[in-house]
């Protein structure tokens, strides 16, 4: 076992504190990664605070991990010492079910193993990226191409793939009109990616506060959803809407913005069920869908795409002692657009 420095929550109601956690010995198929940067995802906060169910504590969150391989197991073929690598929201899956065999491990029929707070296949509880090192089976480690700095790469492992996968699945590209609802951690990546894919991109945000940012990130249009005129102007005009907002929104009025065969895809997860007016679907053969991260193969494809197009996340790099402040700022939507922890500060 390897004891490593980390930041972890001692309970659902306490701030994260510096501590040490155990990492398993490097097995034949494992790689040891020296973590350089870990992004702060909204899910980290929900999970450590017990919003999504009881957890085992202490819990170190973090599933946007970028670092360098420092040791590999005897059977490892995909990575070598010195490689720049990333780990996202999952660290294992059954590898046998239809979805795993199709390369869609995130939809493993036995449940994928989350990067933190999950029971791994060996029975231990996983601990996340707010730490100096992590041991992960090689198949769930992806390569970060030269050309993307590790700090701006980290958020791609959750926010990037979560938006890339539905954009690809629903055919984002030239000639397609795509709207992104919400310009936060996920939304800002959706705008960058959809623009790089060649689509015409519209941001739908509550206000016009971040309009200048949105246009700089690659959006062609920017509208306030607090203005009813937005819904009249855009009615029936969009091919795809990516909804990144976790709060409840009026899905039926957004569905009315879609063209024939358009799709509204939720990547945010509101706690409450969302009511949908079936007429809003029937009227244009529209779909209301959802999407969760992406498979390992697609995550690699996303990183290669980002390198090719010079894309990374917009980040604010913070030292470890600012993690709790950053949590408050994330909850207040006061971040443009992702906090990333510099793990060299985990002394
Ligand atoms: Zn996340
Ligand atoms: Zn499976």
Description:
Pfam families: ADH_N (PF08240), ADH_zinc_N (PF00107). This is alcohol dehydrogenase (NADP(+)). With 347 residues, the chain is α/β, with parallel strands linked by helices. Helices cover 24% and strands 26% of the residues. The chain has two domains: 2-157 and 313-345, Medium-chain alcohol dehydrogenases, catalytic domain (Quinone Oxidoreductase, Chain A, domain 1), CATH 3.90.180; 160-290, 3-Layer(aba) Sandwich (Rossmann fold), CATH 3.40.50. The protein has helices at 42-48, 98-101, 150-153, 159-169, 185-196, 211-217, 228-233, 251-255, 278-282, 296-308, 323-331, and strands at 2-8, 17-23, 30-39, 65-72, 84-87, 90-92, 113-114, 133-137, 142-143, 177-181, 200-205, 221-224, 238-243, 258-266, 287-290, 315-318, 338-342. The strands form four sheets. Strands 3, 4, 5, 8, 9, 16 and 17 form a seven-stranded mixed β-sheet that branches. A six-stranded parallel β-sheet has the order 12-11-10-13-14-15, with helices on one face. The chain is globular. 49% of the residues are buried. The model has no long low-confidence stretch (mean pLDDT 96).
């Amino acid at each position: 076992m390897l004891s490593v420095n980390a930041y972890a929550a001692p309970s659902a109601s306490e701030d994260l504190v510096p501590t040490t956690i155990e990492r398993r010995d490097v097995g034949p198929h494992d790689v040891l990664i020296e973590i350089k940067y870990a992004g702060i995802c909204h899910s980290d906060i929900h999970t450590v605070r017990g919003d999504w169910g009881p957890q085992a504590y202490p819990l170190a969150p973090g599933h946007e991990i970028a670092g360098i391989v420092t040791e590999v197991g005897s059977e490892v073929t995909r990575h070598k010492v010195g490689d720049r690598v990333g780990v996202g929201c999952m660290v294992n899956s059954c590898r046998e079910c239809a979805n795993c065999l199709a390369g869609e491990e995130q939809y493993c029929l036995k449940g994928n193993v989350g990067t933190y707070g999950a029971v791994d296949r060996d029975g231990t509880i996983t601990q996340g990226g707010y730490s100096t090192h992590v041991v992960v089976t090689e198949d769930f480690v992806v390569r970060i191409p030269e050309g993307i700095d590790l700090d701006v790469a980290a958020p791609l492992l959750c926010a990037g793939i979560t938006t890339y996968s539905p954009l690809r699945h629903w055919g984002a590209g030239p000639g397609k009109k795509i709207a992104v609802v919400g310009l936060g951690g996920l939304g800002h990546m959706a705008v960058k990616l959809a623009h790089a894919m060649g689509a015409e991109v519209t941001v739908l945000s509550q206000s016009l506060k971040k309009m200048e940012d949105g246009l700089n990130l690659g959006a062609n249009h920017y509208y306030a959803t607090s203005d009813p005129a937005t819904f009249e102007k855009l009615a029936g005009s969009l091919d795809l809407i990516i909804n990144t907002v976790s709060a409840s929104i009026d899905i039926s009025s957004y569905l009315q913005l879609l063209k024939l065969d358009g799709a509204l895809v939720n990547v945010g997860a509101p706690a409450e069920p969302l009511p949908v007016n079936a007429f809003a679907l029937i009227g244009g053969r529209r779909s209301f869908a959802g999407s969760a991260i992406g498979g390992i193969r697609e995550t690699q494809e996303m990183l290669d795409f980002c390198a090719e197009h010079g894309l990374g996340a917009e980040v604010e790099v913070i030292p470890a002692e600012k993690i709790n402040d950053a949590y408050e700022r994330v909850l207040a939507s006061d971040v443009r657009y992702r906090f990333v922890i510099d793990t060299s500060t985990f002394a």
